[in-house]
């Protein structure tokens, strides 16, 4: 197993000068929140929570474990999230916000659809490799096979997140449609199914073992391009089109 | 959510005639085991266990839940499996036995490598759609991000299962290599990475939402061929080759 990266609080810099030595850890963490490091702390919670959800699955994950990984007290996390369902929702919403913002930007460019699709594919594959815990969490949420053991509130949150993820995936399908209209992909096919297969291929790293992923982290952009090439070719692009798109 | 298929014991046929009405359920189930329905009961346990593992994740799954889904007593399952780790191992080993036996048969045929690769790809994709719970369980095991909370025995079992799954995946990579040697796929590439991407594309249905999967169950072979086509084209097959392979 490769050594895991852990986010630990920056113990060397308490938010306020401490005349009689450093305050106990609990006090220091509250001081950090009061000191306006709110956004950064939220980000750290979300990263740790995605890791715990990805490793343990939602059902077995707990806020305790998230706090432990952060080296923070449980209360600090409960201060923001009343339940792990809320925490899961925030992890996924934050992730989907960032993914969707970037994908919208790429899809909105004034370029041929095939060029935007290629960029979008490489972007998504790179994100999966780079933020594997987030993407495993998103995958778990959107493929929940049953709602057993879930409250109504959780079921509603899962439905809303699934709809958002499907809207994100639909951007790929729309780009495939546009590329077909522009004759850079074959026309007249069921692109709803093709879109699902396309995004599934880009999600391949979800199942790679941890050693493979850490080994590939530094070659992230290269592997992302390779995944994009496979998917664009799989979707039917000609070798001339591939040559044009991947020689940029 | 679509209605879930549940395996319930065939209550209408107790193993032995019951002169004074049917025995209580517990007694009937033991009677079934004594009556030699061992293999069939094991299969039912494995199906139910794969469903529970896939829905809840390993960490949150319990033998209790498996027994409940089977409408059997906990003791009946513990009679065979001392821990859920053993149960997970049996689910995965049984699944990998069946997958590997069939894949070996396809890979060993006297046909061009590209033909065997096409058949192997369609077979695997069909299995993923048809036995989604097993495949989600296998995917969870082989992509375990950390061994936290796992005993040494469980960690060893996970390592052994991961190795078996990698051996299964390696059959695809070997077929890609052979197809490249036979000039039906481009030569001179890093086929280790390509193999990972190839199998990842075929695993796409792992993340499809339950509605999509149940909607597609009856079109399983068609979708499996579509996934295989995408993957074979993604891997670099020419349109002439694709035409030959997919017009059979």
From TrEMBL, chains A, B:
DNA-binding region listed in the record: 62-81
Chain intervals with Basic and acidic residues compositional bias: 1-13
Keywords in alphabetical order: DNA-binding
One family name in Pfam for this protein: TetR_N
Coiled-coil blocks: none
Keyword DNA-binding: yes
Residue span of region Disordered: 1-28
Span of domain HTH tetR-type: 39-99
Protein name listed in UniProt: TetR/AcrR family transcriptional regulator
Source organism per UniProt: Jiella mangrovi
Taxonomic lineage of the native organism: Bacteria, Pseudomonadati, Pseudomonadota, Alphaproteobacteria, Hyphomicrobiales
